[in-house]
Amino acid sequence: MKKARIGFDVGRKIGKIDDRIYGSFIEHLGRAVYTGIYEPKHPQADKKGFRKDVAEAVRQLRVPIIRYPGGNFVSGYNWEDGVGPVEKRPRRLELAWRTVEPNEVGIHEFADWCESVGSDIMMAVNLGTRGMDDARRLYEYCNFEGGTALSDLRIRNGRKKPFGIKVWCLGNEMDGEWQMGHKTAYEYGRLAAETSKLLKLIDRDVETVACGSSNRDMPTYKHWEREVLEQCYDVVDYLSLHQYYGPNHVDNDHRSYLTLADNMDAFIREVVEICDEVGAKKHSDKKIHLSFDEWNVWYHSNEQDKAIRPWQIAPPQLEDIYNFEDAVLLATMMNTLINRCDRVKIACLAQLVNVIAPIMTQPGGGLFRQTIYYPYYYASVYGRGEALRAEIDGPTYDCARFTGAQALHVSGVRNGNELFVMLVNRGGEDTDVTIAVDGATVVSVTECSVLQHTDRLAVNSFENPDCVAPRASSAKTEKEGVRLVAPSESVHFVRLALR
Ligand code: AHR
After folding, report:
1. Which atom belonging to ligand 1 lies closest to the Cα atom of 71?
2. What CATH topology corresponds to 2-10+388-498?
3. What CATH number is given for 18-382 in this structure?
4. Quick one: CA dihedral 399, 403, 407, 411, positive or negative?
5. pTM over 0.85
6. Which of 75, 126, 253, 393 counts the highest number of beta carbons within 10 A?
7. Cβ–Cβ contacts within 10 Å for residue 313, how many?
8. What do you get for the CA distance between the two ends of the chain, in Å?
9. Residue 210 near residue 233 (C-beta atoms within 8 A)
10. Is there a catalytic annotation at residue 319?
11. DSSP-derived 3-state class of residue 340
12. What are the residue ranges of CATH 2.60.40.1180 in the chain?
């Protein structure tokens, strides 16, 4: 069997993790809201129509922040349609996903739900069909104490206390020609600067996110980041990155697919370089941080979605059913965000319920947790604290798209007397791994669980919800460190008690 050593040193820190890297995303798209989190006729619905079982599954994930209401949806959204008496709210054509939006859920309902699951809102404003005036009006409606037309309207609509939304996205994927109100980098950079300026005039503490590229393969990638930042560097706080992967990125080569977190890592590195280059050019002391506010695997539903009839309410769009290998890739993507926590301060797994999501629901029925739920769950629950640098001395492999990829992919997070390690063996060989911790003594192994399946295409379903789920594994504490066998293609969740 191959051997490997993973070395941590409690003094070698990457940085303190901002909890918001474990954020997620809910868009008015498909069944994310309607028959996802909200289904008034469901036997488990609460007084406000939200499913208690779904809320509980979300609560378990300890999602710190949820991006809302889109996505592409936001670029055509009139937020006023979603406030006031529900029976008076209009139905609207929703052009991003070609559906009908009933507006039964709007900012009030969503904010109440977020409070009930313990999450903050990351609000996106419409810079597509609308603009900066709409953004400042929405901000005043949501966050101003009272005594102005819009804040008083909020109070009359039943919410005395402001929503207190701190993070605001300045539009969505404005580089994409599919986006309603798509713009050039210069046009968008100017608009982002002016919109952010208005929000900061109302509240100096607001944090704003400018749109970066929709993915690393965009033809305007890098030019977009440079030009947008040239225009808005001084007045925004974060630049966004979005990225979804599928085997189609690597000509369906399985080994290359499992290596795609390296592509994500390079994306982050390149965007950091551009941010710092623009900052240096401007002689600025300020650092722009990153908001990786859409990331996931997305490809399973592409074909089936082509057959969906347009102009329905909440059709089953983007309902990817994730298999075991997707969870392996997702774990390495999560590791990448942890290992880049010095610059990535916000990240949103896109999305949360039904739409490319870790949680799937059946209208009127139950729910199940997808394979990708588990790496996200473990990282979010146990990965709070300081990320430590990992030295990996282990096997590498070559595949169609990459050479010299590390078979082991790992992150380590110290939280007081606990070190949480998410260890992925994405290589083709079982490996005998020793995890060594310098600067502290490993007293015991609190937990060692493994996500593994003999069939890389295995999935969970309503009938078989635990087909791919973590199970207890074993790790021994030895003189050199904690020793375990990481089978080929497996994800280990290891919690070590330190002294
Ligand atoms: O998350 C699904 C979609 O992916 C979002 O609406 C959009 O921003 C991205 O292209």
Report:
1. 6
2. Immunoglobulin-like (2.60.40)
3. 3.20.20.80
4. negative
5. yes
6. 75
7. 14
8. 31
9. no
10. no
11. coil
12. 2-10+388-498
